[in-house]
Amino acid sequence: NATAIRELVAAVPADRLLVETDAPFLPPVPHRGQVCQPWMIRLTVEYLVSELHRDPAQLLANSYHLFPSLLPAELTGLQ
Q1: Is the pTM of this model over 0.85?
Q2: Maximal C-alpha separation, the chain
């Protein structure tokens, strides 16, 4: 169903891909027909890793790059 989206994601450079939850009508399988919830993001990342061979560490680094306030204190040196 989402072939165009999968093709688009596959074409995005690794350092430019951000996984987010603001797609209420695009929940991951097996939750089709439901409203997408933030906890479902794990399933989206798992799909990106297993099917599109994306690096989970890169996805996390991209999030931290855009949202540095999300960095755990032990990684920021602000302990």
Answers
A1: no
A2: 46
